[in-house]
Design a protein that fits this description.
Dynein heavy chain; signal
Length: 144
């Protein structure tokens, strides 16, 4: 036991300054941790059940970290916009939930029609552009 202790001593001295720096933060967080302890005890069995899945997913998560680091700045930019829209989303959510069964029924039909829509879309865009170009002429013809 003593040789192991002697081996670990340099590591202990490396970590000690970091531990001392974090002590004030720990003192702030400790009351919160004590408050959360009953909840933690309640959730612990579930956490233990999920642990094997977490261990299974962890390598994939680590592989995706570089991508996440690229996307993170964009997410931070969009987050305030998302938060601003949250009240509206909460208002619309019950309606979205009600419409979900209908959406599931219509989805296969939509998937069947999508290739046809992709063929027709360029034509629709051309017609819209033509209509917009004709708009000044139509406005001139209107009796004022």
């Amino acid at each position: 036991m003593l040789p192991l202790f002697i081996k670990m001593l340099p590591l202990f001295f490396k970590v000690l300054p970091l531990f001392i720096k974090m002590l004030p933060l720990f003192n702030k967080v400790l009351p919160l941790l004590i408050k959360m302890l009953p909840l933690l005890i309640k959730v612990l069995p579930r956490l233990i059940k999920v642990l094997p899945l977490f261990i299974k997913v962890l390598p994939r998560f680590i592989k995706m970290l570089p991508l996440f680091n690229k996307v993170l700045p964009r997410l931070i930019k969009v987050l305030p916009l998302f938060i601003m829209q949250l009240p509206l989303f909460i208002k619309v959510l019950p309606l979205l939930i009600k419409m979900l069964p209908l959406f599931i029924k219509v989805l296969p039909l939509f998937i069947k029609v999508l290739p046809l829509f992709n063929k027709v879309l360029p034509l629709l865009i051309k017609m819209l552009a033509h209509s917009i170009m004709q708009l000044p002429l139509l406005i001139k013809m209107l009796p004022l």
